[in-house]
Amino acid sequence: MSTNKLHFETLAIHHGQEPDLLMGAVVPPLYLTSTFAHSDPGVTKGYDYSRSGNPTRTALESNLAALEGQNALSPAFGLAFSSGLAAIDTLLRLFQPGEHVLVSNDVYGGTYRLFERVFKPLGLKFSYVDISRPEVVAENLYPETRLVWLETPTNPLLKIVDIQELSAAVKAKNPKILVAVDNTFASPYLQQPLALGADFVVHSTTKYIGGHSDVIGGAIVTTLPEAYERLKFLQNATGPVPAPFDCWLTLRGIKTLAVRMETHSANARRIAGYLNEHAAVAEVLYPGLVSHPGYKIAKKQMRDFGGMISIILKGGAEAARQLVKNTRLFTLAESLGGVESLIEVPALMTHASVAGSALEVPAGLVRLSVGIENVNDLLQDLQDALKA
Length: 388
Prior knowledge:
- There is one protein chain.
- This protein has 13 helices and 12 strands.
- The chain has helices spanning 8-14, 55-68, 84-92, 109-119, 134-139, 163-173, 187-190, 225-238, 244-254, 257-276, 295-301, 316-326, 375-387, and strands spanning 77-81, 100-104, 125-129, 145-151, 178-182, 200-203, 218-222, 281-285, 308-313, 331-332, 342-344, 365-369.
- The strands form 2 sheets. The chain has a 7-stranded mixed beta sheet with strand order 1-7-6-5-4-2-3, with helices on both faces. Strands 8-9-12-11-10 form a 5-stranded mixed beta sheet.
- The radius of gyration is 21 Å and the shape is globular.
- The protein starts with 7 loop residues before the first helix and ends with a helix.
């Protein structure tokens, strides 16, 4: 069947994962090999060396392209990487010294560090603005601008950007400017930026796509054939590829992505509502709350609101530290998107690299990655911890 006739859940389980032709295995084999036999010099069955390509990685890349490109106007192409930052690093290699990248002023700390401490010294120019405001974007697009980089929802302030509006505004100013969306917080189940006008979608597949906190990975999906060919060359030439077993684990996680995201989102809605009424909480940042400034946009472009919540405590940094130390089910740890609930203080953990910059996050902010445990147990855990 044509992929555009299949629903997301079916694509996630079947696309690129047809039963093995040799033995009929329902789950495609794991190709744990570094090299492949030639029948004659230069004559292979499609693979020669696993850095250049591996059947397990091909299955993952094909699957990701189908999921992110499900509703795109043009065919999508996927590439898998050893981490989310490896994917971002490879994408940034499309651009030359002196060219400009416009970046959302709320992004993952590791992204900011890569831009400022690796690519800026190499000659790329970066500026950070509130990309949720179209007029601000227009004012900061220059003749040398080549890329607009954003997250939505953002990490960790959960800001929402209208992808369709932004992409249209950028292309109206200069059709050659590309738009890249880090879709890690939403996953392709909740949001498909390529269908909204973006040129690239980037993921840390470590998070919701893998979904079990047991594998590191990244991905780029694009509808631009020439950019894909260049990225594929860079993937092979610089070597940031995932191991076959990592690809296999990620594919296994994808099979349950839809049902997991439904539960993540349902749990987060309940918890956000509870926290929004709690006396110790000054503010809840969750796009599923009607009071959130990005609620209407999120409702328009997302299937649901996701499992990420940030809160600002009235007691500031010390209250944040005490809260994360006193939860039992919410594990104090970095990362997000796994089946288990996690909690952290971004200023001291995932976003320490933006300290002292314009992207610095509030010291009293706590980020929750709501898992798929029973929501009543999670609510009880937070209630008990907040008493501390």
